[in-house]
Amino acid sequence: MPSHDYDLTTLAARAGEEARPNSSLPLVEPIYQSTVYAFPDLDALDGAMSGAEPAAFYYRNGTPNAASLERALAVLEGTEAALVAASGMAAISAALLGVLKTGDHIITDARVYGVTYALLAEEFPRLGIEVSFVDACDLNEVEAAFRPNTRVVHVESLTNPILTVPDVPALAKLAHERGALLSVDNTFASPAVFRPALHGADLVTHSVSKYLSGHSNAFGGVLCASSELVAVARTRLLRLGGAMSAFDAWMTMQGLKTLGLRMRAHSGNAQAVADVLVNHPRVKAVYHPGLSDHPQFHLAMDLYPNGFGGMLAADIEDAPAFVKALAGRIPLAPSLADVITTLSWPWGTSHRALPEAERRRLGITPGLLRISVGIEDIGDLLGDFEGALE
């Protein structure tokens, strides 16, 4: 307790910062918003700085809330370690820059998220990293793209937005036989429905603002991998300044507690919506792995026995009118994985930066809507969609 002999300015600065009670523990971890930590002596500080003793010391290096989230996500993805970052793109950047250098080559699915596409197509070549875009669902095309300097194959477990399903076990085998790593962005699936590391993936990333947090109120990314790969990526992230905030880590932990329950509801509702839309005359095409005409249907049923998450895409006749008819009930929002159902327009949002010819080649048309199906009552949802189509 500060001495009462101190000036009021000193008391105001120091009062209340004495040791906290330890006779009980909060059921929910507190938010550790402090940007810096104090140490009792030089030995303790040296132990923290060297990594010999686990301890927080500066916000950019990580917070107790970030460390808790990292432990949780490593367990859920079945990896040795995890690293949280300021965004999903920060996590992907740290993961790939941790294993790639000038002169290396990466093979990636051409259907990756638009900003990932831009990172690989525009930024990596500036660093002297060669990139080949392929159809990752065509194993022959992937195999033909390998070079002596290929270090990584990068795919999404379920692609954005038309939900193709790469064969992760086969891709892992192909990469490992050639001395390369497999990187999988698992954002659309979440570990509740698919865990890439258990199928051979070396690097698993997420945008945690999607299913992991689940309520559109937290922002960040995560890499789940071996302790060695995480340590290298952590160094890259530290130098790039991509630390996750304590509050976002704390909020994600709260959402994570209901991930399993939410994903069962998301998956069931998305399947029901897909089954209705695919039979409607105003719907030109529906993309969902649970539909029997999906090109990877049998593979999806094998890899995703517990459902496919809440995502689907549909090419709608007169999409603007459809969106307008849903106004006030289902929001048009350029993100996904909230507990409420939302619509997104990939042509003008997530894939806007791609050339028009490339968007059309990937199946992204002006009428394509990505639907993130929430956990609402399925009867209400189907009523909303059927009413808008009519």
UniProtKB/TrEMBL annotation:
GO molecular-function terms, A-Z: transaminase activity
Keyword hit for Transferase: yes
Keyword annotations from UniProtKB, A to Z: Aminotransferase, Pyridoxal phosphate, Transferase
Pfam families membership: Cys_Met_Meta_PP (PF01053)
Top-level taxon: Bacteria
Listed InterPro entries: Cys/Met-Metab_PyrdxlP-dep_enz, PyrdxlP-dep_Trfase, PyrdxlP-dep_Trfase_major, PyrdxlP-dep_Trfase_small
CDD domains cross-referenced by the UniProt entry: CGS_like
Cofactor(s) listed: pyridoxal 5'-phosphate
Family: Belongs to the trans-sulfuration enzymes family.
PANTHER family given in the database record: CYSTATHIONINE GAMMA-LYASE (PTHR11808:SF80), TRANS-SULFURATION ENZYME FAMILY MEMBER (PTHR11808)
Name of the protein described by the UniProt record: Aminotransferase class I/II-fold pyridoxal phosphate-dependent enzyme
